[in-house]
Specification:
Elements: H1 2-33, E1 35-36, H2 38-43, E2 47-49, E3 54-59, E4 62-78, E5 81-88, E6 96-106, E7 109-115, E8 132-137, H3 142-148, E9 154-155, E10 166-173, E11 177-182, E12 190-193, E13 201-220
Antiparallel strand pairs: 1-13, 2-4, 3-4, 4-13, 5-10, 5-13, 6-7, 6-13, 7-8, 8-9, 10-11, 11-12
């Protein structure tokens, strides 16, 4: 009986161990499924661009794309969860804007979080508060939000990133609110309430005027 119990105990331990390995494999598969290789998507024609520039980008370990306008991920919808991406703009006054569009219907109706790199290192106290912005088109443009709710839907970033370097953005979209974390900070740079009732839609890369660089896109719902 002792030997039998010992054998059963060993079998149970092996079973628990194998179940644990299976769980880790499943979790890892889910994690990998949330990573989007932008270079591969470009090569597979799985990106839908509204701009004029869409080209591959390799900068050391950063492999992605350079683009302008909005680039939607084909057949990918996003409701709520976390969006992470590495992005890089330019220190060009009033010309470099880049971020993420989500809950999109088309290029006229979507929510967006974007950055103004040309404000990252400014000494102007007003521009310092205009580094990261939330918009919800078509109604809630940045002009309307700044006019009617000054300082609510755009904020500064502490510490400010380099205006010409890569930054890491984590955008957490909940049922009613949105939080933006920069360069792995534990404190959000921007926390806002959502301004529309859309709960799902297209997701894409967003840049204005000058093209922006994007890499390492991860979407977790």
């Amino acid at each position: 009986m002792g030997a039998k119990n010992l054998t059963l105990g060993v079998m149970k331990k092996k079973s628990v161990f194998l179940c644990g390995l299976a769980l880790l494999f499943i979790l890892d598969s889910f994690a990998q499924a949330g990573k989007y290789n932008l270079l591969s998507l470009l090569g597979e024609n799985k990106l839908e661009s509204s701009g004029k520039i869409l080209k591959p980008l390799t900068d050391g370990k950063k492999k992605g794309i350079s683009t302008d306008g909005i680039v939607w991920l084909k057949d990918i919808h996003f409701s709520k969860g976390t969006i992470e991406v590495d992005l890089r703009g330019k220190d060009s006054l009033q010309r470099s804007f880049l971020g993420i569009a989500f809950h999109g219907v088309d290029t006229s109706s979507y929510d967006g979080i974007y950055f103004r790199p040309f404000n990252f290192q400014t000494s102007d106290p007003i521009r310092k508060e205009h580094m990261v912005q939330y918009i919800s088109l078509p109604r809630f443009t940045w002009q309307y939000l700044r006019s009617e709710f000054n300082g609510v839907y755009e904020k500064g970033i502490d510490p400010p990133p380099s205006p010409n370097g890569w930054l890491h953005a984590k955008i957490v979209v909940g049922d009613k609110d949105i939080k933006v974390y920069v360069n792995h900070s534990s404190t959000p740079s921007l926390t806002v309430q959502k301004l529309n009732d859309r709960q799902d839609g297209k997701i894409g890369l967003w840049s204005g005027d000058l093209p922006g660089d994007f890499a390492n896109l991860v979407i977790s719902e």
